[in-house]
Design goal:
The chain is mostly helical. The chain has one domain. The protein has seven helices and two strands; from the N terminus they run H-H-H-E-E-H-H-H-H. The longest helix is centred in the first third of the chain and has 35 residues.
């Protein structure tokens, strides 16, 4: 049983890595559409986007799990955290990374990428593991609900883009090299995964 779980977790990790770009793009598009659905002008209520607020509340456990992963990775790689809180404008909560003193571009890209990979891996683990250990259906649904909340948060944020741009401005030459290098490496890895080495 333990060996089966180990094999399953390894397969889950490989699968999570392979689908990370798809999840990232899909979640970012969904998030963008939700933000565009908000009020375009000054808002009279406490939030500009009631739908985003509603989904944030519904998926709160998954959001907190995603924030925990984001915070842990930021600390491990030395990325300063500016604040952990909510935004009344768009009705969401997040771990806000500090833009004033950005780390190297390569570090930022690695942290943001690993954030999504770890989140996708955690979500898929919560989807698969409850079925493997045969727990009650109610708990399976709870784990799936948390997993869906984690996947909902796997999007590229405007603050992430600001941090990347700040890192590029801080060290333009080396930052550009690191950015291009990261994209080339990721492009090669995913090309070989999707298309095969022999093609």
């Amino acid at each position: 049983m333990q060996s089966d779980i180990g094999i399953l977790m390894l397969a889950n990790l490989v699968y999570s890595f392979s689908v990370t770009p798809i999840v990232l793009v899909g979640a970012s598009i969904l998030r963008g559409l939700l933000l565009l659905s908000g009020q375009k002008r000054e808002f009279e209520d406490w939030t500009r986007n009631k739908l985003m607020t509603f989904l944030t509340i519904i998926f709160l456990p998954g959001t907190l799990a995603y924030m925990g992963i984001r915070y842990l990775l930021a600390r491990v790689f030395g990325v300063d955290v500016e604040d952990i809180g909510s935004s009344s404008t768009y009705g969401e909560i997040n771990v806000f990374l500090k833009v004033e003193k950005p780390p190297r571009v390569g570090v930022v890209l690695v942290v943001l990428f690993l954030n999504v990979v770890a989140a996708v891996f955690t979500a898929f683990t919560l989807i698969v593991m409850p079925v493997m250990i045969y727990i009650e259906t109610l708990w399976v649904l709870v784990f799936w609900w948390i997993a869906l909340g984690i996947l909902f948060n796997c999007s590229l944020r405007s603050g992430d883009l600001s941090l990347i741009l700040a890192s590029l401005r801080n060290k333009p030459r080396s930052g550009t090299i690191e950015f291009i290098g990261f994209m080339v490496i990721m492009g090669f890895i995913y090309y070989t995964m999707y298309m095969g080495v022999g093609m």
